[in-house]
Structures are given as C-alpha cells and as structure tokens.
Design brief:
24% of the residues lie in helices and 27% in strands. With 314 residues, it is an alpha/beta fold. The structure holds NADPH dihydro-nicotinamide-adenine-dinucleotide phosphate.
C-alpha cells in the first residue's frame, strides 16, 4: 500500500503525541507510528509527579494513554508499528513501515526518543521499578532520607548525584575509572558535597535485597592483583552511564552529534533537511524530561504547519 500524508510523526512518547495533538488541531491529518515501545520511556517508570497539572501525580501508563486518546480526538491516525526505512533525500520523503507499507510525506517529525544505557546485569531487570532507575529527577523523590548509589562519572552522573544529595541521606557514586569524566565545575561540586561519597575504580557485580534493592555487590580494581570485593547497603540504584538516541534509521542523512543525537537549528526543531523536524529526547542530550519533550513536540508541529503553508502544501 502507498499512502500520501502531510505529516508523519515517528514515536509515541510525550514529544510524538504532543506533536500529533498540535498537528491534528492544525488539520494536518498526521499519521503517527508508535514504535516498539508505545508510550515511550515514561512507561518504564510508575508514577509521574513532575508533569504539571497532576498535583497528586499520575500513573505513567495512564498519562501516555490519555495523550494517545487526545491525539486521536483531533484526527491523528495512531498506528501500532514501526518505520523501518526512511529515504529523506528528496521531498516528498518516502518511509516504509514494518509491513512494507509506503508513506509519502511532505514533513516528518522524528520523536523516536533515546534509551538509557544499562550495565547489562540480570539484577537490573530483576529490580526494575523496585529500586533500579535511570532517572533521578523522575524517581529521586521516593528516596528521601535514604541511601542511594549513582553509577557513572560523566556530567549526567554528577548532576544526578547532586540532585539526589538534596533528597537522600547519603549518595554513593560508583565510578569505574580513577577519575570523574565530568566538567571540572561538576567534579568539584560532587567532591565537595559532604553526603556524596565517590567510589573510584569500582564496578558493580550485582544487587541484592528481598522486596527491592537493599544493597550492591561491588568490586574495586577489578582484575588487578589488589582486587577487592565488597558490599554497600543502598535503597536505590541509579544508572547514569549515558543514553543512546534512537537514530539508526537516519544515519548518513541527518546531521547528528558525536553521540548520535539529531542536531537541530538554533531554537527550532528543524534539522539540516527542510521539512524534517526532531522533537524530544532524540535531539536532547541534556534535559530529557517529559514536559520538555512535550514542549518540543508542540514546536515541531507548529513549525511543520508553517513549512507546509509556506510551500503551499496545506
Ligand atoms: P558520558 O558518556 O559523558 O559519561 C558516561 C559515564 O558513564 C562515564 O563516566 C563512563 O565511564 C560511565 N560508563 C559508561 N559505561 C559504563 C559501564 N558499562 N560501567 C560503568 N560505567 C560506565 O554520558 P553523560 O550522560 O554523562 O553525558 C552525555 C553528554 O551530555 C556529555 O557530552 C555531557 O557532557 C553532556 N551533558 C551535559 C550536561 C551539562 O552540561 N549540564 C548535563 C548532562 C550531560 P568512563 O569515563 O570510564 O567511560
């Protein structure tokens, strides 16, 4: 099947759904492909307490279901499925879904998100949502006056550790190298914070606990003659070892930064290809918040609408 559309949205996190709400209300009749994880990264957490409008918090899956319904209410054609091929070399762009359906579209809004990296330990899965998290801003609040560990030594790890140090009683940083990779100002901040303890040259072997995380098995100087295994007692285990943007499909076509995030122009969501816009975490290595992603989804839809009007395609 071949179909002509004005706006194709790829991704179903807050950026994708918000873009669909705005595009639908602008009569762009958007088609949205949900991808492999309908609802996006937020669905891996439980309660969301920092999305404005929900003073008591909201179940993450409920929030995403509501966004999906809101997009459908304004005419978005929301499809369970993935885009598997993208030819952005000329307009209309040609994209193909996993069933082989071809979509010819004048604008594309890429909102494919990013995935947090994990260490690959079985215990990360075992304790998912029970003490293991990849987002301190999302889940830190649940660890007030408790003890947590942050894995990683980059800027994100330092920011997460600083954020958590304002809530938790004690924060360990588990850093595999003998130094922090983060910018000097961030390094100084965590080194000087009295309730942060940095465990250098340390790797995580596993987690333990009965009804959730109660501690971590660690190893210092792994593989060296002075290797030493030890345990720490913690209530929360936060991964901050980087994110991988979902941009495989666009490599060689769109300008990406060295980590693979889509580069957008100035304060807009436009990319190096006219008519292709990027919203949410796929273009955001820094903030990675649902509300920020939703805001950029709105921007992308407004910009797609203006583009179509300028080209006389609306
Ligand atoms: P980074 O890639 O900079 O850092 C990842 C950290 O995780 C490193 O310390 C790395 O260790 C460690 N790590 C990676 N894999 C493993 C593993 N398997 N086991 C243990 N440790 C591991 O990622 P960030 O998310 O921190 O930052 C991404 C980008 O965003 C950077 O360019 C950063 O500067 C930027 N950023 C900027 C901010 C700001 O300016 N405010 C805030 C947040 C991010 P190792 O050093 O040994 O490789």
């Amino acid at each position: 099947m071949k179909q002509k559309v004005k706006t194709l949205i790829i991704g179903s996190g807050p950026a994708g759904y918000t873009a669909a709400i705005y595009a639908g209300r602008s009569s762009l009749e958007p088609v949205l492909y949900c991808g492999l994880q309908p609802g996006g990264q937020l669905t891996t957490t439980t309660v969301i307490e920092n999305f404005p409008g929900f003073p008591q918090g909201i179940d993450a899956n409920q929030l995403m279901t509501d966004m999906r319904e809101q997009a459908k209410r304004f005419g978005a054609d929301v499809r369970d499925g993935s885009i598997e091929k993208a030819d952005l070399s000329k307009r209309p762009f040609c994209l193909v879904d996993e069933r082989g359906n071809e979509l010819e579209t004048e604008t594309v809004i890429i909102a494919t998100g990013a995935s947090a990296k994990y260490l690959g330990l079985d215990d990360e899965k075992k304790y998912a949502g029970m003490g293991v998290s990849a987002c301190a801003t999302c889940d830190g609040f649940f660890y007030r006056k408790r003890t947590v560990a942050v894995v990683g030594g980059g800027d994100t790890a330092c920011e997460e550790a600083m954020y958590l140090s304002g809530l938790a009683k004690k924060v360990y940083m588990i850093v595999r190298k003998p130094y922090l990779r983060a910018a000097e100002i961030m390094r100084k901040r965590v080194e000087e914070k009295e309730n942060i303890e940095i465990l250098y040259n340390t790797n995580t072997l596993g987690l333990f606990g009965n009804d959730g995380v109660e501690g971590a098995h660690l190893v210092r100087f792994k593989g060296e003659p002075n290797e030493e295994k030890y345990d720490i007692a913690i209530d929360g285990f936060f991964l901050a070892i980087g994110h991988k943007p979902n941009t495989e499909l666009f490599k060689g076509q769109l300008d990406l930064d060295e980590q693979g995030f889509i580069l957008t122009r100035g304060n807009s969501t436009s990319t190096n290809i006219e008519g292709v816009f990027a919203a949410g975490d796929v273009a955001d290595p820094v903030y990675r918040q649902g509300v920020v992603a939703a805001g950029s989804g709105a921007k992308a839809a407004i910009e797609a609408d203006r583009f179509l009007q300028e080209k006389g395609l609306k």
